[in-house]
Design goal:
It is a single chain. It contains twelve helices and 14 strands. Strand 2 and strand 3 form a beta hairpin. It has a seven-stranded mixed β-sheet. A seven-stranded mixed β-sheet has the order 7-8-9-10-11-12-13. It has two domains: 257 residues, Ribonuclease Z/Hydroxyacylglutathione hydrolase-like (Metallo-beta-lactamase, Chain A, 4-Layer Sandwich); 35 residues, no CATH class. By secondary structure, it is an alpha/beta fold. Bound molecules: zinc ion (2 copies). One zinc ion (ZN) binds next to helix 2. The site of one zinc ion (ZN) has 7 residues, from helix 2.
């Protein structure tokens, strides 16, 4: 038997337990450690029995409680190397520099070089701005993240000054590769999203397949292929286009959400469900609904119309994952 329990879904935090009878994986840790433990308790999931944490990408709504939770439970984190690097960079602002600082450093270096070597060594200096060195969060938000993370660490850990980026064990996987955790076989697939190396996953054990694809600007061929033959399919249904256009977000953010590396609209999800989805899942779970730019009723109606008569007691039962409370476990 396999079980999927969505603990939280949406732009304020994402986390889902995927379990076989022998193995339990937490997919993303996008709430604080304390809140994750609370949700697991509410959903009847024992945190002590988790075997690993698996990460889709480094956005805050997917990694917020990662370090603290992994350290507290002493379990390995499965992550791609670029995602890990981006996460570390996010949490260690002092080792990164802003673009302005970088320019100043380069100027200082070049002045030093010019002094040391009067034969114009700058001619060979072809270095370019390493975008990866520029932190992608403001210092204010970094400070609040660090403060909260520290606050949640055990006192002993705090006293020992454990770095925020310390993880008990890291298992790197390559985006697009297949691997297993315990008796759960995992196929990872890349998704189009504005993160370092974002992934979706299909989990398979005991003849049951669970496919999860959220945080994607559109559904490319590799994702369509990955989502074939799923028994449970969790798909993003982020925003209603009209609500997003007329909503409160600044234009630049609206453009980002709508872009090919943003989030999937109700329409895009419905088009996939109507035209390309194989119809074989027992459950279709709509996920990562925006609280500002969507309404559960809009997402539901749009998916219901797309699934139409294929929805019945044996197949395509529709569920909506929620931000504030865990979804009732889906067991197959
Ligand atoms: Zn997200
Ligand atoms: Zn994201």
């Amino acid at each position: 038997m396999m079980r999927m329990t969505v603990l939280a879904s949406g732009s304020k935090g994402n986390s889902t337990v995927v379990a076989s009878s022998r193995t339990r994986i937490l997919l993303d840790a996008g709430l604080s450690c304390r809140e994750l433990l609370k949700r697991m308790a509410a959903a009847g999931e024992d945190p002590a029995r988790l075997d690993a944490i698996l990460i889709t990408h480094e956005h805050q709504d997917h990694v917020h409680g990662l370090g603290v939770l992994a350290r507290r439970l002493r379990i390995p984190v499965f992550i791609t190397e670029p995602t890990h690097r981006a996460w570390v960079r996010m949490l260690t602002p002092r080792t990164t520099i802003t673009y302005t600082q970088w320019l100043e450093q380069r100027k200082a270096e070049q002045a030093g070089k010019a002094e040391a070597d009067s034969s114009a060594s700058l001619r060979n200096d072809k270095s370019v701005v390493d975008e990866t060195l520029i932190p992608d969060l403001t210092e204010a938000s970094l400070e609040s993240i660090s403060a909260e993370a520290e606050e949640e660490d055990a006192p002993a850990e705090k006293a020992a000054k454990t770095p925020l980026t310390h993880l008990p064990a890291i298992e790197f996987f390559r985006a697009g590769s297949n691997f297993s955790i315990g008796d759960i076989a995992i196929s990872s697939f890349t998704i189009p999203h504005d993160a370092a190396d974002p992934c979706g996953f299909v989990f398979e054990a005991e003849g049951i397949r669970i496919g999860i694809a959220t945080d994607l600007g559109y559904i490319p061929t590799n994702v369509k292929q990955a989502l074939r033959r799923c028994d449970v399919m969790m798909l993003e249904s982020n925003h209603d286009l009209e609500m997003l256009r007329d909503g409160p977000y600044p234009w630049a953010v609206k453009q980002r959400v709508m872009s090919r590396v943003g989030h999937l609209s109700n329409n895009a999800a419905a088009n996939f469900l109507a035209d390309e989805y194989d119809g074989g899942a027992a459950y279709v779970v709509l996920a990562h609904l925006s609280e500002s730019n969507n309404l559960p009723a809009l997402a539901r109606v749009s998916a219901e119309q797309a699934l139409a008569e294929r929805m019945n007691l044996l197949g395509n039962q529709l569920r909506l994952a929620e931000q504030s409370v865990p979804l009732e476990a889906i067991c197959l």
